[in-house]
Structures are given as C-alpha cells and as structure tokens.
Amino acid sequence: MAGRREHEFEGVFGLVAGWTMSFGRGPSTRLVVDLVRVVPGDRVVDVGCGPGLFLKEAAERGATAVGVDPSARMRGLALRRIPAGLRPAVSVVAGAVKHLPLEDGSATVAWAVASFHHWSDPDAGLAEVHRVLAPAGRLLVAERLAGPRGWFRGHALTWRRPRPWPTWPGGPASPRSP
Asked: Which residues have C-beta within 8 Å of that of residue 21, sequence separation ≥ 6?
C-alpha cells in the first residue's frame, strides 16, 4: 500500500490532480498559515507539500520553507508555483513522512495539509515530525472528511476509519475523547 500511495500522483493523473489542488484554495491556505502563526524567521516543513500552495504563503510571510513530497510531479509543480523573488526562501525535496530528509530540531513549524490520510503509519509519522521540530515547535495536521463511499474515500479521512486514531502519552485515543 505504501508503494502505491507514494507513486499515485505521477503521470497525467498527478498533473491533473496537482493543478486541481492549486485553484480556489487561497482562504484555506491563509487560514492554515494563520493558525500556526508563521512569522519572519520561522523554518517551516510542509509534509506532503503537493503543488506548493502553503510553501508560497509561508515564504510570503518571511519564513523559510521546505516542502517534502514523494511525487516528482508534485515537487515540480511546487517549484513552478514559487515566484522568482521567493525562491531563495523555498526548497522542495524528495521524501515522505516515514523518513523526513531533515536535521533533528531544524523546523519551528511543521504541517501536513490533506496528506495525513496517505501516512501508512500515523504514529511513526508523528514521531518523525516531532524529531524535526525544534523545542516549542508548532504542528498542524489538517484533513478533510469524506463519507466511507465514493471517490474521495481514498483521498481523505473517512467517518469509518480502517485503523485506530494515533495516540501519544497523555493524548486522546480518538478525536471524540474527553
């Protein structure tokens, strides 16, 4: 499953999906960056950066940003979206959440927007993101919800999860826990 997921955005499908993801997302992009309070000097890592919308927004706010994505197609789209004036602040690298190609504590902010549902092992992924976050670093995971049937069931979290929600010491066992 992980192998299929890592390459599902290659080829023509990847190009169409990447461009589809690129339009009409301005308000949600700004909301994500607002929620984690990106400020000049932040070092942002975008896990599963896709076509790079969030990288551009972070760089526009004075942060340096690294996008990590297993898809060469998505990495190419992300680089093309970055205006020349912001390119020194943005890099895009091959990788996946199971092994982020970044130094320990190198990021002050990390986010995974609409990519968490691709993680084959959410607990290990969260541990890897924790590794690259600096002390007091900020993390945001944002996903859309879809019904258990239909086309989006493989591209979003569904109401009936096939595996339990990730847990951590002292954390909730599910999003509905008190």
From this structure: 50, 51, 53, 114
Q: Provide mean pLDDT across the span 75-84.
A: 90
Judge contact between 107 and 44, C-beta under 8 A. Answer: yes
For residue 52, give every residue at least 6 positions away whose Cβ sits within 8 Å of its Cβ, in sequence order, or none. Answer: 46, 67, 74, 77, 78, 79, 81, 82, 90, 92
The sign of the dihedral angle between the CA atoms of 2, 125, 30, 173 is: positive
Question: Using CA atoms, how far apart are residues 134 and 3, in angstroms rounded to an integer?
Answer: 30
Q: What is the rounded distance in angstroms from the CA atom of residue 101 to the CA atom of residue 94? A: 8
Provide the β-strand partners of residue 66: 45, 91
Using a 10 angstrom Cβ sphere, with 0-12 exposed, 13-18 middle and 19 or more buried, the burial of residue 169 is exposed
What are the domain boundaries of the chain?
Answer: 2-158
* 3-state percent breakdown (helix, strand, coil) of the chain, nearest 5: 40, 20, 40
Instruction: Give the number of C-alpha atoms closer than 13 A to the C-alpha of residue 75, restricted to the C-beta side.
Output: 16
Q: Which whole number is the average pLDDT over 4-8?
A: 49
**CATH fold for the domain made of 2-158:** Rossmann fold (3.40.50)
**pTM greater than the 0.85 cutoff:** no
Contacts of 101 (CB under 8 A, 6+ apart): 68, 93, 94, 95
